[in-house]
Amino acid sequence: MNIMFYHPTFNAQQWQAGIQQRLPGSTLRIWQPGDDRPADYALVWLPPYEMLAGRHQLKGVFALGAGVDAILQQERQHPGTLPSGVPLLRLEDTGMAQQMQEYALSYVLRYFRRFDEYQRQQQQGVWQPLEPHQLQDFTIGILGAGVLGKAVAQKLVDFGFNVRCWSRSAKQIDGVSSFAGEAQRPAFLDGVKLLINLLPNTPETQGILNGEMFAHLAPQAYLINLARGAHLVENDLLTALELGQIKAATLDVFVQEPLPPAHAFWRHPAVTITPHIAAITLPEQAMDRVAQNILAIEAGDTPTGIVDIRRGY
């Protein structure tokens, strides 16, 4: 079994040893320009066009991340980047769900307990207890009910929060109110005090976090964006913060990364920034999942994480 590997930042030697350990008899080679030797599978992130173009004999292309928007964007810009007829697979969970739970819960509690405001009071030398939020008035809405959205929703329900989810198609999550489709989105947004975005990045969802959506939330709502920067219309958020529609925002992803030094978000007192670290790919767990899926394909079974190219996830 021949496997090609390309990732601009991962430790290629770690993946080479790890995959060969999990799949005895396999050979994983680090792809280099000019390599046109046969391969059965490809493990990639932002692969050069010439790596995969024309390789219709591949049994699967594995995107080494939960999101596949980057490689699908490459395909739109350079048709043929993904060989037609070859399944594209994404990583599902591989330790990302727990990381996303940790991140979301920490910032939800920060806003719920008003710790962000107490931090500003400390900087100003102010000793002033604030009226606490109440659970019944602190409805949390989650955009996206996939693996990560479901995991975050369940963790917040465990803490007693009133949680609702919105997704493209109907999903059932214990203890969570579910909304689906464009027709139900206004009802989903109505009364939401804290909005978490975990949607996949597709042409249909780009710019979904905009002024119109913010106006449907509860007054002085909070925003946490953990999906992609392309979901957020940045100037609309700045306007919503100025108007008081949004009280504060935590952003882990941005249209341009790294965030430019002159960007207004850096200096805004109500915006918290983290450098796209909410959930990172954990190599050992990722290699376990890739190996399991390759074995499933070799056995004639259906692997997990197959991407619907048309939908974009």
UniProtKB/TrEMBL annotation:
It catalyses: (R)-glycerate + NAD(+) = 3-hydroxypyruvate + NADH + H(+); (R)-glycerate + NADP(+) = 3-hydroxypyruvate + NADPH + H(+); glycolate + NADP(+) = glyoxylate + NADPH + H(+). Gene3D superfamilies: NAD(P)-binding Rossmann-like Domain (3.40.50.720). The active site is at R228, H276. Residues 106-278 form the D-isomer specific 2-hydroxyacid dehydrogenase NAD-binding domain. The keyword Kinase does not apply. Keywords: Cytoplasm, NAD, NADP, Oxidoreductase. Its main location: cytoplasm. Coiled coil: none annotated. It is found in: Cytoplasm. Transmembrane segments: none annotated. It is an enzyme of class 1 (oxidoreductase). Its EC number is 1.1.1.79, 1.1.1.81. Catalyzes the NADPH-dependent reduction of glyoxylate and hydroxypyruvate into glycolate and glycerate, respectively. Belongs to the D-isomer specific 2-hydroxyacid dehydrogenase family. GhrA subfamily. PANTHER family: 2-HACID_DH_C DOMAIN-CONTAINING PROTEIN, D-ISOMER SPECIFIC 2-HYDROXYACID DEHYDROGENASE NAD-BINDING DOMAIN-CONTAINING PROTEIN. NCBIfam families: PRK15469.1. This is Glyoxylate/hydroxypyruvate reductase A. The lineage of its organism: Bacteria, Pseudomonadati, Pseudomonadota, Gammaproteobacteria, Enterobacterales.
